[in-house]
Amino acid sequence: MHKFTVPIGPQHPALKEPESFNVLLSGERIMKFSARLGYNHRGIEKACEERTYIQNVYLTERVCGICSHAHSSCFVQAVEEIAGLEIPRRANYIRTLVGELERIHSHLLWLGVAGHEVGFDTLLMYAWRDREIVMDILAKLTGNRVNYGINTIGGVRRDINTDQIKDVSKAVKKLKERTEYYVRVAKEEVTLIKRLSGVGVLLPKDVLKLGAVGPTARASGIERDTRKDDPYGAYGELDFRVITDDHNDVYGRTLVRLGELLESYKMISQILENIPEGPITVKAPRKIPAGEAVSRYEAPRGENVHYVKSNGTDKPERVKIRAPTLANIQTVAKMLEDRNLADLPIVIAAIDPCFSCTDRLTLVKDVGHGKGRKMRWEDLHSHSIQWYKARGIDFSDLNKKMEKLLK
Amino acid sequence: MTKEEDVQNELVKKFDFLKDKVKIQRSRRIFADVAAQDLRSVLDHMIKNMGFSFLCTITGLDEGSVFGVVYHLSTKDGMILNLKIRIPKDKPTLETITEYFPSAEAYERELMDLFGMQVEGLPKGSRYPLPDDWPAGEFPLRKGWKSKTSKQEGGI
Amino acid sequence: MIRPAKMIRQVLSSLFKKPATNLYPFNKFEMPDKFRGKIVFDPELCVGCKLCMKDCPAGAINIKKVGEKKFEAEFDLGKCVYCAQCTETCFKKALKFTGEFELASLDREKLKITFNAKPDDTASK
Amino acid sequence: MIGSLLSIFIFPGFLFLMVFGLSAEFIDRKLYARLQNRVGPPWFQPVADLIKLFSKEDIIPEEANPAMFKAMPILALTATITSFFYIPTWRNEALYHFNGDLIIVLYLLTLPALSYFLGGWYSTSLFSKIGAVRTLTQLFAYEVPLLMSILAPALLADTWSLTEMAVFYSAHPWYWLFNILGFFVALITLLGKLEKVPFDIPEAETEIVAGTFTEYSGRLLGLFRLSMDIELIVGASLLAAVYMPFGLAISPIFAFILFLIKVLSIVAMVSVLRTVFARLRIDQMVNFCWRYLAPFSFLQILIILALKGFLVR
Asked: What is the top-level taxon of the source organism (chain C) (predicted)?
């Protein structure tokens, strides 16, 4: 069968963010799959070193759009551990409440994207309509739909009053009934099951070797959930079940994510019932004493690891952010061995990749000229011709062809 | 005797050069300093019979005259042991640990791209995370390196 | 039991329901009351300590001294990330956030707004 | 001569089909949106899309063969329009009819699928090649059940001409009820022919960008879009003519309105089916067609053969 390489990305309708995969195909079968990441690199780790701790709280929030609270809480926990701050229980409860609301918003978003990847746009429309309920609640609680900015070093910035608690419980009741409907759809819709089961198989032994985290690992029967193993925030006082599944494939991941949604609703009602009274923040010093800390957070996609090293000034010395997608992307190559091309989008979407988390470093323009300067279209055009001419490929006759065309 | 102290005693019993190098910061967090050449033996022992079956990540540090590399390993029940080694800046070579953890490849490529360390034994693959036309010799995460993005484009 | 077209009842029933989407520019959607929108600055209360400039993650605010005890804030909405950290850092409460979020404009310069002090003579202060 | 030219270009011909096709596309998209609880596009959206496409410059890839690249959309459009003349719509007999025009209509309806394949293959881009191969595999999967299920009513009427079938069925009023099973099989295979969601594998935008139409742009893409809309109308009216041949003898105005209702109800069925299913993979689609659709259409033919013995001529 004639083999050819299909480039998918960096711009491709199936991929929400720029990453590029080269897939060696023979007919419809995928023979080899290689990923090239780093397109969404913004230099957050270097930028953290140039900003104060207060500014970094908002910077780490912008690592990723859908798990912004996860990254900022993870960073803030590490800084509080170094500074030895004991944040009030009410702040812990509010932080966990916003974290679970974000998990609901992220899983519903994933449910819609998965539906779209397999061509089931109705599921996308309905899942994202119901997601608006939780987005409005988050806007009411924290003042913004996506980057909530509820975290600060030493606690949270906004309190929650009684009628907000009533709104949240009403919304959670409605969402619970909608999620139960989606569980029934996932279990009974023939074409959806056909497209999801048996796809992207990941055996339990591969999970440990390749280091998969989050729903991707739990769908292969590995019971690893940072909220249970290494409890932070208010998770120590909540009782919830870690959802695992033994389908080892994309269908299992769907069921795990839906199960986690139902668990989140239970947790939120527990939080709302016994949220303790008291202050919501503790005075934090501007200069954090020297030290280092590793903090983990169970983001919707898996386990976030932040390593923060401070040197006594008001700027951190080193911030290392390891997002869950970096661990999960290694498993995609294994899952796609001799599957067919039609499964590629849904397998990539199944680990719920968030590439803005994964790439975090500076893209620098024009380093050769010392100072950064803006290049107009013509400079860029002529620059590229010189650059190629220096390498022996002369595009200049292209200019003549262009002029002839433009005349 | 908490779990952390068990791990500490076993490490110190097995490797006497770790005498006072292992310190417990809080529950489920242990920091240990190791010399670069003993890293593999400690790693091997920890993975094989101490249950550290999961590599969270590898962090690179630029400590002025020396590069620090911290290996974060974790067990099934959430304890993280951070092994820190120091390698000289003029000869920054490391051996890869991809035979224990295939997922370490991405973290080690980050060390190579951002700090300029040399990791031997890495399988062939594309570089991560910097683009291919990144000028050679520029290592962004080193302390002395300043980003050129002007204030207008969001630099501070 | 598995059967095809599981969502058919839900889908047909939504034929008779009001659509969930609304045509944005024609009927506006009101945001909750404490929504973090554009920041406004009150020159009277400012004492020029520049703490807000230090704490702003995006470097969007710039306080200039225009007279004795009179300050002017030059604000770049293009860079502001609407985190409202400056409203908390300012202990004189000179900065407040409004609910306004429709701030798009075609020209970056129009996004730079300056709140200048009242031009009354300094003698009376 | 003038009459036939008029009927080719104006009334049951190009202009009428274009208007009807665009309005059917609007109804399809609006119903699809309302089923998904969305507001949906305004009435002039399909016309606006067409005008936008026709005003854009169409780029032909360098290695592509320009002649074939430009010819395929025109071939698709003409094939769908000519097949409309042989289908009896609101009078008992079509514009042109002869014994055997059923085969001509079915052949003309496979020409668009062939032109998608050639268009995709000749644009030499990776994605369109994969899309082209998928169009062909899908063609072989749904063609046999479609042919069988349309053959059954013809067998009952003992003719190869659509018009004589219409005459036969209006003479024997309730006979068309026997073909209900064939109608459902034909409706599902019509989804395959029109490349609607459960079977829009050749144009799966999340896998292979736009499948066969990846390299097409501007006027050529506009022609392809138009031919797909008209194919929706022609397919629906073929199904209406074959499976719902009642009410043709009443006065022309009512017959025309009844024809519109029949076609639009089939379009509504297509968009409801389009809403509730996910897209199948190509291998799942092929074995679905051969494992379920083909046996059902053979069953339909068996029923017809058994019935022919009892029914009085």
From this structure: Bacteria
d(CA D303, CA A70): 64
Which residue is it, tokens 């952390």?
A: B4
**Who's near A233: CB < 8 A, 6+ residues apart?**
A73, A77, A92, A95, A96, A99
Quote the domain boundaries for residue D218.
Answer: 59-310
| pLDDT tier at D76, thresholds 50, 70, 90 | very high
Q: Note down the domain range covering A225.
A: 44-356
Shortest distance, CA A122 to any CA of chain D (angstroms): 6
> Cα–Cα distance between A170 and A159 in angstroms, integer?
19
Cα angle value A258/A262/A267 (rounded, 5°):
140
Contact present, A17 and A354 (Cβ < 8 Å): yes
Q: Which residue of C has its CA nearest to B151?
A: C59
Residue of C nearest to D34 (CA): C15
Contact A288, A53 (CB under 8 A): yes
Q: Does A273 reside within a domain?
A: yes
What is the four-CA torsion angle of B8, B12, B13, B19, rounded to 10 degrees? Answer: -150
Query: Per mean pLDDT, which range of A41-50, A287-296, B113-122, D290-299 is the poorest?
Result: A41-50
**Degrees, nearest 5: CA angle A216-A219-A225:** 70
> C-alpha distances in angstroms, D281 versus A7, D135, D285?
20, 12, 6
> Whole-angstrom Cα distance, residue A144 to residue C35?
6
Tell me whether residue C99 is in a domain. Answer: yes
Q: How far apart are CA A141 and CA A139, in angstroms?
A: 6
Domain total of chain D? 1
Contacts of B109 (CB under 8 A, 6+ apart): B119, B122, B125, B127, B128, B129
Do C105 and C89 form a contact (C-beta atoms < 8 A)? no
CB contact under 8 A, D278 and A129: no
* A343 contacts on D by Cβ (under 8 Å): 281
Of the listed ranges A143-147, A394-398, B21-25, C111-115, the one predicted with least confidence: A394-398
Provide the shortest C-alpha distance from residue C7 to chain B (in Å).
Answer: 40
> ipTM of the predicted structure?
0.85
Contact call for residues B129 and A37 (beta carbons, < 8 A): yes
Q: How many helices (H) and strands (E) does chain A have?
A: 16, 8
